[in-house]
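User: Predict the full complex structure for these chains.
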Amino acid sequence: MSASARTELLAGWGRMPASAARVLRPRSVPELEDLLAHRDGSLPMIARGLGRSYGDAAQCAGGLALDCTGLNKVLELDLTTPQVRAEAGISLDELLRVLVPKGLFPPITPGTRFVTLGGAIASDIHGKNHHLDGTIARHLDHLRIATSGGPVECGLGQRSEVFSATCGGMGLTGIVTEAVLRLLRIETSSMLVDTERAADIDACMARLSEDEGRYRYSVAWVDGFSGGRHLGRSVITRANHAVLADLPAKARRDPLGLELRKPLRVPAAPPISLLGPVTVAAFNELWYRRAPRHRAGELVPLAHFFYPLDGLAGWNLLYGPRGFTQYQFVVPLGEEATVRTVLERLSRARTASFLAVLKRFGAEGSGHLSFPRMGWTLALDVPLGAGGTAVLLDGLDELVVSAGGRVYLSKDGRLRPEMMAAMYPRLADWLEVRARLDPEGILSSDLARRLGLDGARRLAVAKVEA
Amino acid sequence: MIDATGMPQTAVVIGGSSQIARDTLLLLADRRLRSVVLAGRGEAALESTAAELRARGVEEVMTRYLDVTDTDRLDAFAKATACELDTIDLLLVAAGDLCAFDIDALDARTVSRAVVTNFAGPAATVVAFLGTLRAQGAGRIVILSSVAGVRVRKANLVYGAAKAGIDGFAVGLADALEGTGVEVTVVRPGFVRTKMTSGLKPAPLAVESSDVAEAIVKGLETGVPVIWVPPVLRAVFAFMRLFPRVLWRKIPG
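Assistant: Here is the predicted structure of the two-chain assembly.
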């Protein structure tokens, strides 16, 4: 193998669980394609980008992790369509630096710009505009993926089954090497933001259900710690891209200026969690009090609006060595009571969660294992390492499943395999495509093995349950 | 695979007829456990635990005869077991037995036997599995030690010394495996009321085997390297370690 290999301990953003794998850094797409087609030995492998999945999606214990961040070229920028063709190891941060000065913006962006395009596709990511724009799959013209049988091109009009299995497929159908992404035109790099506070979770969901069409981006930051009459008190922020006319005269001279400051870095991993009940309660209180009751038309640089946490690199270390998980679920509209119950249980367990995020999703996309569906999604950080968390979260899974909802695999490190078929009704379709594209099961990950997504064994179970 | 909350899906148990092992597995069966290899000497106890696990929904339970003192067989056993499971998430080492307490009742054979049963055999078994565990890049080894090994008392001289040996081995092994993805937990119970201790007068702070099991499962979740059962023994022994020797030796059997 030309790429050098070293054994490293890998974990997701939540730092748990960790496992050791040989890490290879392919230097070109053909080299990566070669690795899959002419692998030496029978070691399983998984692609890894910037490690922002919270759980065990981008690690492969005892196997190979293919670090794709070196495959980050912009191959073609078409300003008329507009669309970009790029290698999938490119980060959103790199992409923004190319696109924004030209008045272009990725159609979907998550809460951090430190994800790769390939990782975004494997997770079929959504953003604060899901209610209007769906997931990233809706904006992809086509993909090139590396499989053990060689490279495969796919899109909605071409091998659409492969495309739908790959978008949200957690890197287990093939490794995305190139993608063509349609882009959004913007006039400025500023956001026009309306902010308001909601006294509790019911008020928050009621507000988010109103005026939905007026804002491209809409999200609520929820206090996941306070209980009682403050349960789920929130700060709702909704925004549109500012147009030229929204800017003051002085700012119009450089409307597309992009300021992506180098983030501050957590200087060292603390030996214990600094985010305990006391600090989190204080933080949440301060943050809620600081927010205006109501403010309209505030001009904010886009990085502040989309990527508030990117200002502190390595913030995940603050949870201490036992790490944390993010519990993100979605339940259909009409299941508001489930959202409330989940918040109540976590708040009662004194599980310190700061800055939970609540959002109303729009229609479901085409990805077989795509997470978003029409309804409410709530994402909360849950520190690990206190006994009882495992049982607490298992209980939440039961609630979510009985409400017809699901848990987001890219955030997950602990779901039980029995839940998969109930949460993802198109699992059997996905397994079928995977079996076709990767008959020997070369692509695997700790997540795949934990959830039984990597073999034929689970296929039988899924068929029985379906 | 072990999940983010430390729960294993597969386990190999050495000393599978032990009551602590049984109680631990029953708890893990309610979480994520789906495949288990139970290895030990007491066939009836292995089979009864296996039946209980199957009843709790564990898909695959295999029982294997294993005498950890038969060290020549350990490598072959580890190799065969590794083939039976796709990965070994948890290696639970609960093998061990009490031996004569009274210094006058000790003889060379008893001492040698006790050291092999409680220290050399379990340590050799763990070593036999190390190659597999390191190659799989993940896993947790849980080794049953005892507070008897923290500071050896005259009243259980040989058992205590053997447990001190396995405890030291486990602590050192944890350091040796840093960065490999394989982690080691040492369990230090006080007096546990089990069939092994049925003839003895319970010591202060005695616990049930189910208490030890609960502590182990909680320890897997919290990831602590040392589990004391009951937890107060950690403080007790912090003090006991400093106890002047002239007083220590006065502690009666």
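The CA atoms of residues 16 and 38 of chain B lie 5 Å apart.
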